[in-house]
Write a structure and sequence with these properties.
By secondary structure, the chain is mainly alpha-helical. It has a domain of 127 residues. Helices cover 73% and strands 3% of the residues. It has 8 helices and 2 strands, in the order αααααααββα. Helix 1 runs antiparallel to helix 5, helix 1 packs across helix 6 and helix 3 packs across helix 5. It is globular and about 55 Å long. It starts with a helix and ends with a helix. Belongs to the nucleotide-sugar transporter family. SLC35B subfamily.
Length: 189
């Protein structure tokens, strides 16, 4: 049970930091591309912690993915730095917040990879109980979201203010953002 609390703390931290990075001048496309770097982080920590070795083709693949992520990050930095509507001092502040966002994404990426290694080590020690792990990883952090209740409520209000959408077949009308969320949840089953 103690190990699940450690894993839940990692999971909760990764989730909150990833979401908070969006408040730090990180564009959603960059956020999505950056998170695809989990292969890189997992390989790096696998080499460092687990002393794993990989084939040349895997190193080459990771190098190419890294190049793509670096290119997207670099281009995003140029876009943040060249925002012409800001004076030089404000532009520097925006850029520094962006750098903090990149640091947050990097931290979350490495923490997520570490969580995967921790889970792998638990499976080796106690056996693979994936349904149990899935339950504890998602049930135990729920009280932690009470700390974020004001922010969650604020976004629920914003969702409720989105344009109305009539759900086909059943004829129910609800705000479109709630419909999107509902479809996201339904399609995960």
């Amino acid at each position: 049970f103690r190990y699940y609390f450690i894993m839940v703390a990692m999971f909760f931290t990764v989730s909150v930091v990833n979401n908070y990075a969006l408040n730090l001048n990180i564009a959603m496309p960059l956020h999505m591309i950056f998170r695809s770097g989990s292969l890189i982080a997992s390989m790096a920590l696998g080499i460092i912690i687990l002393k794993k070795r990989y084939s040349v083709s895997k190193y080459t693949s990771i190098a190419l993915v890294s190049l793509g992520i670096f290119t997207c990050t670099f281009m995003s930095a140029k876009q943040v730095a060249s925002d012409s509507s800001l004076n030089e001092e404000d532009g520097l502040q925006v850029f520094l917040w962006w750098l903090l966002g990149i640091a947050a994404l990097t931290f979350a990426l490495l923490m997520s990879a570490r969580m995967g290694i921790f889970q792998e080590m638990l499976y080796k020690q106690f056996g693979k109980h994936s349904k149990e792990a899935l339950f504890y990883n998602h049930a135990l952090p729920l009280p932690g979201f009470l700390l974020l209740a004001p922010n969650i409520y604020h976004h629920a209000v914003l969702f409720s203010q989105s344009e109305p959408f009539q759900v086909p077949v059943i004829g129910l009308t609800l705000p479109i953002m709630w419909f999107y969320l509902l479809m996201n949840v339904i399609t995960q089953y």
